[in-house]
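Researcher: Good morning. I'm working through a list of sequences from a screen, and I'd like to move beyond sequence-only analysis. For each chain I'm collecting a predicted structure so we can compare shapes side by side. This is the next one on the list. No need for commentary yet; just the structure.
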Amino acid sequence: MHAWRLVRPRVPGTMEDIRRSSGKRPLSKPFCFLPIVAVAALLLVLTACGGSSKLSASSPTPAVGVPPSRVASGVAPAKTAAALPTVSATSSAPAAAALSVGMQGALGYDTVLYYSTGCFACGRPQVPDLFRRYLDPAGNEHTDDLFAPLASYGGYPHSFAADWSRGDLWVALCTHGYCGGETEPSGEPVERLMHSADGGVTWEDKGTMTVDTFLYGAFGKDVLEATLTDGRASYRFAESGRQLSAPRTDLQMTPQVVPGASADGSGEPGIVWQGIAADGTSNGRFYDLNGEPLVSGPSAHSALLAKTAQGFLMSWQDVAGGPQLVGYLDDSEHVLSSWKWSESHEGQTYLTVAGQLTSGLLYGTALLPDFFGFGTDGSERGDQAHGRMYPIEGVFLKLDSSTVHPIIGLSFGLTGNSSPFIVHMDQGPVRRVATGSDCLNVREATNLQAKTLGCFADGVLLRLTSDPQVEVEGITWVGVRTPDGQAGWVSGA
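Model: Good morning. Structure tokens for this chain:
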């Protein structure tokens, strides 16, 4: 089973083809198949989607809940200059490898892709909509609109957070008026907190929120939120009510949830404090929960994406508006390896990385130099002829070949200034619940009287375990994991 595959558009007169229904590779040339596993949690880095409308489309600053331009910047100077980490020198770093556009990529089996659509560099909400895309065992592609159930409330998603490994999705839903973001709230705004515990299929209304509140990160059944008051942000966990305070008072800091950065070293997501410069932008410095320096990027225009076995995965620009770089830094802040995306479209350069897979494959979103020719003959373009303004595509980044591979299908049907932005990728194998009416019980053991771990609605994806199917008293049982990771059994699957 493979998480993704590369497919080459067919050259007229050859036998090359895309075997999407069977998962087979093109016949005329062997291509690379890379298995992947799930990223632990979401890191939202859709920089063109949040913050000030004047934000550069190529800025690497991660999209956090509160736009930096609206947070007060009057902070006392640091008491001890030596306590501040210095931005890493890059003079001794290996030269960055140039990234170039490769052949198209396609979703493979056992892969679930989450993405949103919206305008580019326009100050839209981070995740205004959320789609789930995957292949079923027969090779058929499915796309589900996970925010569709929220439409009955009216309004729009104001901010979003997810703990993907536990199936917990949170949405701050602005149901009336304007709930803040680019400017102050207006129009008698009402904001509600919505929670899904099954990966976005069913939703629970958790009640009203304080207006001008943004979601920062999810930790299972709780979510970190920030509320702006007189231009200053305060942080608390919505369910427990626990306050979160910056570990240092001599610096301006904002929290972010970083995959792999848990304080206990378990590899789970953890909170990292990001330094903020006097003008409200990132200063490229990051601190642990105790306020101790964790890592500094190669420039002030740096974003921390994840803590991985290869080192700190970061993206940065040497100068604002310049080429986008992505690479790994060690604990001493030396750049171990890096890649540069210099491709531009009408003078604009844009690349974000949403996550890393254990194979080393990265995934994200890129502004390509031109509209890409998808399909077996390159004719499936989705370009200006279909009303699109920008050649933005979800992409795989294959670092060993320094290539960027646009993913087929995500932009099809979009028009105007609407583009796909990858949010997260997860690996199955999964099976979709389809009872026709009732929910499906997941039980602790292969027995109809065994304790139920939950009853899941149609549309929920259950991950298959390594346990084989077993037959007990004429009933076939299949080992699965619930959205929150509990191992159990379902009958008749």
